[in-house]
Amino acid sequence: MFTSKERIKNDIEKLSKFNASPWEGLTRLSFSKEDKKAREYIKRKMEEARLEIYEDAAGTIIGRRMGIDNHLPVVMIGSHFDSVKNGGNFDGPAGVITGLEIARVLNERNIKTKYPLEFIAMIEEEGARFGSGLFGSRSMVGKVGKDDLEKYCDENGTTIAKAMRDFGFNPDNITKAKRDPKTIKAFFELHIEQGPVLETEHKDIGIVDTIVGIDQYNIEVTGISGHAGTTPMNMRNDALVLASDIVKQINLMAKKAGEGTVATVGNLKVYPGGANIIPKKVWFSVDVRSRDKNKIETIAKEIDELLKHECKKQKAFYKMEKKISVDPVRLPRNISEVLKRKCEKLGFSYKEMISGAGHDAMILAGITDVGLVFVPSKYGKSHCPEEWTDYDQLQKGIEVVLEAVLVIAEKEEKK
Ligand SMILES: [Zn+2]
User: Fold this and answer.
1) Which of 326, 341, 372 is the last residue of a domain?
2) Ligand 1 mean position, distance from CA 375 (Å)
3) Are 127 and 408 in contact (CB under 8 A)?
4) Which of 87, 242, 247, 368 lies at 20 to 30 Å from 188 by C-alpha?
């Protein structure tokens, strides 16, 4: 292998020091003190790799390496460097370091590519500070406007616009982050799997063929409240009892749909919420994900019909409101075939799989060809301090991306 495990490990460890919660996991929010330090580190490493560095109007760091023909569109390699609160050291940085390591290897081996390369460290992918996830990539595809920067606040009421200004960026320029799709040939992202599949199946590499579609709903069920002591069981109209039936059924609907379809009720609130009051109203969230849009729509229809039926039976009311709808994205075969071939050449085991989480790659897939590579997560854990990927595994992933980049960016054979 041409990559260096020592350098990869060093980068992960160094980056993990720029952390607002060293006592528990990694917390690196956007436009924070820790962001600034991590940013300086990444820029320094890019400089050492002789990349031409700039920051786009959203605050994403970009290191450019010239190709033989710089009029050609760029091949991008990267991920994000922000984190969730109390997260781990690998979610995001693994992909940023992939870029740094590839740049170093190309220099060492004196390799030129026909197409220019850009190494990317995206900002605010997690949305942990402002609730505005995938901010860097959405800005790149032109989906963030000036108004959005005033709309989203952190928990202290600081808007993105203010945070950017304090940090030295001009929020008025945000739309300049937009890239012309014609100037991008492909985007490669390496990311930790954040689930247990690769480890359980003893695979080195996950090659994502589809990024799942996501629909999210808010559901409100209204019954009648009453005294918990004086209302007989057969005279109740308990919103929580009704809602809990629905929650259980949603779980079964996803199991029935199969093919990796998942459905989750992750948030539920009971009103008025007292030990001695029959619940009048229950609010809950539903998150449905699948590679197949039809399956997502079928589940939504089933939930709606079930609610209608149960509410009619129990004289309750409901409201079901769609909050988010993202279509599944099938990633282009030209890139995944190259990734597969390279795994075979390097002797790494691989699995074609879906990505159940949203990544910057999902957004960029809207404007360019995307390759998304997963490496195993220990015990499938992520977004927690225990998040871990063995450095051997991470190195294998980086090696595969390196090889694939050389194909897509057309390595110039040395004479
Ligand atoms: Zn991530």
Assistant:
1) 326
2) 12
3) no
4) 87
